[in-house]
Amino acid sequence: MNNIILFDDEKWKDLLPVCMTRPIAECRIGILKISEKWSGYLHGDVSYITKDYLAEKYPINISHDNLVINARWLPNDRLISLIKKLKQNDALLHEDVLVAARMDDKQFEKLIANEEIDELKGLDISKLDDGFSVLKRPHDIFMLNGAEIQNDFRLLKLSKTEDISPDVKITGSHPVYIDETAQLEPCFINANEGPVFIGKHVKVMQGAMLRGPLSLSEYCVVKMGAKIYKDCSFGPHCK
Fold it and tell me: Is the pTM of this model over 0.85?
């Protein structure tokens, strides 16, 4: 298991107010939080380097071998491949911004003690045209949300639910995943432009119209006649 440490860099204030009460990595984009994406791609446990007033609730866990990753960056296959190739004291940079590094516990002890750390060997990935996604302003969360729903479908290996009530009208070729505990009254789901994720214990009332890409997390309730447009994500217990 990899030990993953997601850090808020000096640009965290540009994402206010969404990260005022949480680390950047606890923001939800697509189906999953950023922390859940990194954990899923790298098969590891996640901890945080965040604002001082959040450190008690979101502590850092330092191991003998650590992957330190900028929480503003979203994982994709190319970035994951580059990170997996990192050796001790290797780093990935995007121009002058640290994206990821591999460091041992001794390096972290020096950081905490404000001592000079061993020089990192950096690779600048700014010239690689691989569709890297990074959060710079709050609106990026909404701009990237539809694509991230589709990415999370692939990460979670979600497939189309076959046994769906005939009262639920579905159009489109993208997959519609409905958890077996969800309750759907007669409604309409449009999957022409992207997939639809309906999580545990979600309730969709009659007459609702849903358009993908769309994610409804556990215990969400969609009211009667509601119209939900594409590229939307709703966290747990939303109504």
Answer: yes
